[in-house]
Design goal:
By secondary structure, the chain is mainly alpha-helical. The chain has helices at about 1-30, 75-110, 115-130, 135-140, 145-160, 165-170, 205-215, 220-230, 235, 250-260, 280-285, and strands at about 40-45, 55-60, 60-65, 185-190, 195-200, 270.
Amino acid sequence: MGKRSVRNGVLIALGALLIAIISLFVVLRVKSVEPTYPITEKWLTHPDSIIIQTDSIIGPIVYHGNPDMRQVKGDKRKELFINMMLPSILLAQHKVRAEREKIESYWQRAEKGTASLNDSMKIDSILSYYKCKHLEEVVNNLHNHPISIVLSQAAIESGWGTSRFFLEANNVFGIWSYNKKEDRIRAFETRGDNAIYLRKYNDLHGSVYDYLITISRASAYKKFREVRMTSDDPYELIQYLVNYSELREEYVKILGKVIRHNQLTQYDSFQLLNPDKNDPVWQSL
């Protein structure tokens, strides 16, 4: 009876240990799953409608409408503009990472030889769109750069949210349009006898995302893309944005001054609360 009791005791102890291990595994697994958050849509009727976020963890917000930032002066305008831009920048960067992950999955299947016919058609479309010969190049091109650079370019190109193109077209970065079929507005100035058109966006997020994709596709920013693979120093990277403006080297100097004077590098460590991928707003972006 003594031996049986000992054996039963050992079995009970082992059972309890197994239950504890399973419970710990479940707890750790639950903890490792990052919580997700719904995306808030907000319509801006006035600069005061902009949400001032005091933490470095930014909530996912999609802003609609263009507040007239000309009503606000000086540092207050800059504060509102930065707080308006941050959610859109972080959401657009999050979308770029999601696009990158999707393309990586196509690349992995292609490397393993398990890509379907539909996959192959999609891969051809991706390579054509990003003007690349291999998916690895596309993945490398879809690499985000510091928020300070994005904010600096947004501030310069939109006059801190006061430009006509921002107010009438949500166009923050002065992206030109060469397609008659897309929604766009005409600039007052011309280039010789040629009219200039700028793209029109439905919301601020659309403008930021298109800017990021433009940087990832255009041959003018090839060197910039190469350097940002190994560097996140905004002052080094902006040297390779010389082709973004007709001001060329002077534009680079202005970018550096805006970043330095407004201490924009403080925003490079900001993060976005993980948006819910099943959120209808996210799926519509």
